[in-house]
Amino acid sequence: MSRLxxxxxxxxxxxxILFFSGLVSNAHAQTGNSLFYENEHYLVIENITLNxxxxxxxxxxxxxxxxxxxxxxxxxxxxGIEIQGGLANNIYNPQLIYNTEIGLLIxxxxxxxxxxxGSIIANGIGxxxxxxxxxxxxxxxxxxxxxxxxxxxGDYTYGNLFEGCYFERTDSTSDNFFDMxxxxxxxxxxxxxxxxxxxxxxxxxGDSNVFRDNIFDSGTVSxxxxxxxxxxxxxxxxxxxxxxxxxxxGTDTRYQNNFFIADNLPQLSSTDPKISDYSFVAxxxxxxxxxxxxxxxxxxxxxxxxxx
Length: 308
Prior knowledge:
Blueprint: H1 3-23, E1 25-28, E2 31-32, E3 35-38, E4 43-51, E5 57-62, E6 68-75, E7 79-84, E8 90-92, E9 95-97, E10 102-107, E11 114-116, E12 119-121, E13 125-129, E14 137-139, E15 142-144, E16 149-153, E17 161-163, E18 166-169, E19 178-179, E20 188-190, E21 193-196, E22 200-204, E23 210-212, E24 215-217, E25 219-225, E26 231-233, E27 236-237, E28 242-248, E29 254-256, H2 277-307
Parallel strand pairs: 1-4, 2-4, 3-5, 4-6, 5-7, 6-8, 6-9, 7-10, 8-11, 9-12, 10-13, 11-14, 12-15, 13-16, 14-17, 15-18, 16-19, 17-20, 18-21, 20-23, 21-24, 22-25, 23-26, 24-27, 25-28, 26-29
């Protein structure tokens, strides 16, 4: 390899490292009143501790994309973390505690904020998603004891996923798990646990929401369903007694394989969701076709015997 070729390759390597380091940057162990980031991409922020005075926003991401937050502890602001617009930001193990209004606020178009683990506890509202934000995902997050409600799904939000999360109502909170009155639906609640030390309310609004494989543990939960084509299946009672009181104000709600003791929750909807009306008509038509086909075959066979 020539000397010139080695120099060119080395120069290219140095330029590539400098270019990549410009795309991905880190912020470590910052402390202070608040942090604000705008139009940042591929930024890593980790080991942050912020303590406020009950006002303002602890950490703001405005029009940022592919930002990763690790181990951020934010408490006693009005809002713990606010994500305005942007796309595909990730939050790992957040601790959002005692924020007076909202623990995590997600707003603006697009969305796909993903939260993994962590605790969102004793805020005014735990998580608020609004302004057309969509497809946000929460995995294994503790969302409990937030005074107004655990999750507010605001105007025109849809497609959000809560999987393996923990929700709890106590005598120091309101009785509402969620505020879903503004949502248009298509939200999924899968394998979560709902615990209640008081009589609480779980009101489901919007269309095509899915509640599946959730556990209801202790207390009485008044489940009210509105909208169209919501599905409630494979949910069950936990280790301690839980009672579900159903009020279904929706249409075409589907229930299947739910297991609770001493409740009035139906196990199946009036129309089996596995067999649609179209399928039934198709089966009848197929049966008639088979009968007519058999008659034709028998008639031809009989004519052949007569002719012989």
